[in-house]
Design goal:
The complex is a heterodimer. Chain A is an all-alpha fold. Chain A has 14 helices and no strands. In chain A, helix 3 packs across helix 14, helix 6 (123-134) crosses helix 8 (155-166) and helix 11 (196-225) packs antiparallel against helix 14. The longest helix of chain A is centred in the C-terminal third of the chain and has 35 residues, at 256-290. Chain B has two domains: 3-231, P-loop containing nucleotide triphosphate hydrolases (Rossmann fold); 242-362, OB fold (Dihydrolipoamide Acetyltransferase, E2P) (Beta Barrel). Chain B has nine helices and 24 strands. Helix content of chain B is 24%, strand content 35%. In chain B, helix 2 packs across helix 3, helix 2 packs parallel to helix 4 (139-151) and helix 3 (110-123) crosses helix 4. Chain B has helices at residues 41-49, 91-100, 110-123, 139-151, 169-186, 197-203, 221-226, 231-237, 324-329; strands spanning 3-12, 15-25, 30-34, 56-61, 64-65, 76-79, 157-161, 189-194, 206-211, 214-219, 241-243, 245-248, 251-254, 257-262, 271-276, 281-283, 291-301, 304-311, 318-323, 337-342, 345-350, 356-362, 371-372, 377-378. By secondary structure, chain B is an alpha+beta fold. Chain B is elongated. Classes of the chains: A mainly alpha, B alpha+beta. Chains A and B meet through helix 10 and helix 11 of A and strand 6 of B. Chain A: Keywords: Membrane, Sulfate transport, Transmembrane, Transmembrane helix, Transport. Chain A: Part of the ABC transporter complex CysAWTP (TC 3.A.1.6.1) involved in sulfate/thiosulfate import. Probably responsible for the translocation of the substrate across the membrane. Chain A: This is Sulfate ABC transporter permease subunit CysW. Chain A: InterPro entries: CysW_permease, MetI-like, MetI-like_sf, Sulph_transpt2.
Chain lengths: 291, 381
């Protein structure tokens, strides 16, 4: 890159909103196509490869691979785990965001840091922590065992691991918004005689509903795709404790093409979530502009 | 009857928001809480609304303990500075909110709610906008929606937090007059917070001047303007300007004038503060009797003429204000050296703790004739 290009880049940045000069438009084309190429190389191509690989041996093989009882069980298990973990985090996220933005209490900054913890702790470590606490010889494990409840290598363990990993999504989406909105409207509702529940459902919730949905969708995408923490606590029993990502991993060792078929299913679920998110953003934008 | 606030205290950490505040408000009165930001007026409003609790003190309404009722059951209407309208509800839904959220035994029928919402919107002259959303309204319209919403619960006390703070000057003046009339027709006891002197003096039956968590003075606009109780009230409301002055050995010395004073009870009083209002400084034809002043600038502001005057013995120039007619009689221009006569001075006497304990307004005589500087008016805050 010569000095001219650099100057052009700077003038492109400076001239935002002004009629672009010829060199500025060159820079724009270069930057945009570079970004698109990186995206294509790193995201679109591999994603396309998964679907291509999945269908390489034809439709019938594909349908056969995903309709295997173990694969179907994995789909069911993944959906079950997400169906439990996401609502739990929805409630937790709302409660945490409310507490963080409406109250001052000792340990508030600690709570803020703890909410972020799952982002910084490796999922494998999270799984190990669960084993330590709920495993056969864990602190609580023996108590659960005495009451005939199996946590590790069973659904409860999978749910716990997923809840842990996806904990921050809803809360992190809500906290900045609720902070920006303040609590004046809640106070107004209070002086008008509304009860706590009514304030929550009629004033607070409508104001954060888009951010909440957005957080829930992100949380859901992550819950369905989670591998590391779930890997540790699952036990890998095909048809019993294998979620979709684990099933893909297992098939990958045994039956290469079937692994890609199941992987494409997982990718499809995630793409569906992303599509829904996009749709919501679009609708939200409409709502905000048009009112 | 009415509201009795006594000995209210509220601290936030090291900051004292309310320091022994006592105030009585009669039924139907329109009272302004006037003070700079941080003077405690909004804290008092929030405590009255039930959104905050005092550390000490009591509030009685017709003898009933108001602090024992939480905000929900207090029946106090509060209009926020930024209105706090519910953005996802229409104007009509906003106004109906307080009626809809009542427990079902006390909730009016849907048709009754609709009727009273219509009536309220008609009163605030917004009945044609009932299906709009707050985002589609102007500032002044939002403010009236907030007012209608607060009135829907038929409050026995209406609180307004900086009701015109977020509006532009033109709308502000119109709404001021409108709200004054509106209060007269409604008769609800109303307390409003403002930092704007003009607003408080123009609208309120009584003005409560607050500073640093304390009430400096309570009185009608005229009382406070004519007879400010403290240097703060004088500066803030009567535009009083400090000039150096002292009393010693039976003489009062202000600028370079000396008067013999009688009736000066020196007990408690250890220092005095002298204030002069802009409209009490007049140019005089009688030379040698006035104080020499140099005119630094002259501004013509809608019917009044304001001038800055540099005078010997003063670090800051004094502001003088005359109406156009007076100025035409004695026109002064920038650079002129004129003689001025001070028609009225206010002298505040403070004790050793710096508390104002006495004050006296007096008309300085021409020449050095003896004056009486008493009896002092005792100041009670």
């Amino acid at each position: 890159m010569g000095g001219d290009t650099l100057m052009a880049a700077i003038s492109a940045i400076v001239s935002i909103g002004v009629r672009p000069s010829w060199s500025a438009s060159v820079v724009r084309v270069v930057l945009v196509s570079a970004a698109l190429m990186v995206l294509a190389w790193l995201l679109v191509l591999p994603l396309a490869a998964i679907f291509a690989e999945a269908f390489r041996q034809g439709w019938s093989f594909y349908l056969d691979a995903i309709s295997q009882p173990d694969s179907m069980a994995a789909v069911r298990l993944t959906l079950t785990v997400a169906a439990i973990a996401v609502p739990l985090n929805l409630v937790f996220g709302l409660a945490a965001a409310w507490a963080m933005t409406h109250f001052t209490f000792p340990g508030k900054s600690l709570l803020g840091a703890l909410i972020d913890l799952p982002f910084s702790v490796s999922p494998v470590v999270a799984g190990m922590m669960l084993i330590l606490v709920y495993g056969k010889d864990g602190w609580l494990g023996s108590w659960f065992e005495a009451h005939d409840v199996q946590v590790i290598f069973a659904l409860p363990g999978l749910v716990l691991a997923t809840v842990f990993v996806t904990l921050p999504f809803v809360a992190r989406e809500l906290i900045p918004l609720m902070q920006a909105q303040g609590s004046e409207q809640e106070e107004a509702a209070l002086t008008l005689g509304a009860s706590g529940w009514r304030i929550f459902f009629h004033v607070t919730l409508p104001r954060v509903r888009w951010a909440l949905l957005y957080g829930v969708l992100l949380c859901n995408a992550r819950a369905m795709g989670e591998f590391g923490a779930v890997y540790v606590v699952s036990g890998h029993l095909p048809g019993l404790t294998n979620t979709l990502p684990l099933q893909v991993d297992q098939l990958y060792q045994e039956n290469f093409s079937a692994a890609f078929a199941v992987a494409s299913l997982l990718a499809l679920l995630t793409l569906l979530t992303l599509g829904l998110k996009r749709l919501l953003e679009w609708r939200h934008g409409e709502a905000r502009n048009g009112h | 009857m009415g509201i009795d606030i006594s000995h209210l205290r509220r601290r936030f950490g090291q900051f004292t928001a309310l320091d022994d505040v006592s105030l009585s408000i009669a039924d139907g009165e329109f009272v302004a809480l006037l003070g700079p930001s941080g003077s405690g007026k909004t804290s008092l409003l929030r405590i009255l609304a039930g959104l905050d609790l005092p550390d000490a003190g009591s509030i009685l309404r017709d003898g009933e303990d108001l602090l024992a009722l939480d905000a929900r059951r207090r029946g106090v209407g509060l209009v926020f500075q930024h209105y706090a309208l519910f953005p996802h509800m229409t104007v009509a839904q906003n106004v109906a909110f307080g009626l809809r959220v009542r427990p079902w035994r006390l909730r009016p029928r849907a048709s009754a709610i609709k009727a009273s919402v219509e009536e309220l919107l008609r009163r605030v002259e917004l009945d044609h906008l009932s299906t709009r959303y707050p985002a589609q309204l102007s500032g002044g319209q939002r403010q009236r929606v907030a007012l209608a919403r607060a009135l829907a619960i038929q409050p026995r006390l209406l609180l307004l937090d900086e009701p015109f703070g977020a509006l532009d000057a033109q709308v502000r003046v119109t709404l001021r007059r409108w709200l004054r009339e509106f209060h007269r027709s409604l008769g609800i006891t109303t307390l409003f917070v403002t930092h704007d002197q003009d607003e408080a003096l123009e609208m309120a039956d009584r003005v409560v001047v607050m500073n640093q968590g304390r009430i400096e003075q309570i009185g009608t606009p005229e009382q406070i303007y004519r007879h400010p109780a403290t240097p703060f009230a004088s500066r803030f409301i009567a535009r009083g300007q400090p000039i150096p002055g002292e009393v010693e050995h039976g003489t009062l010395r202000v600028l370079d004038r000396v008067w013999a004073v009688g009736g000066f009870a020196e007990d408690q009083i250890t220092s005095i503060t002298v204030h002069v209002r802009p409209e009490d400084i007049f140019p005089t034809q009688a030379h040698r009797e006035g104080l020499a002043a140099r005119v630094l600038n002259v501004r013509h502001v809608a019917g009044t003429v304001r001038a800055s005057l540099a005078m010997a013995g003063l670090e800051e120039p004094l502001e003088a204000e005359w109406n156009e007619r007076e100025w035409h009689r004695h026109p002064v221009a920038v650079g002129d050296v004129i003689d001025v006569h001070i028609q009225s001075l206010t002298v505040f006497g403070s004790d050793a703790d710096g508390r104002v304990v006495a004050r006296k307004e007096f008309q300085p005589p021409h020449g050095a004739a003896p004056v009486t500087l008493g009896p002092w008016r005792r100041v009670e805050a």
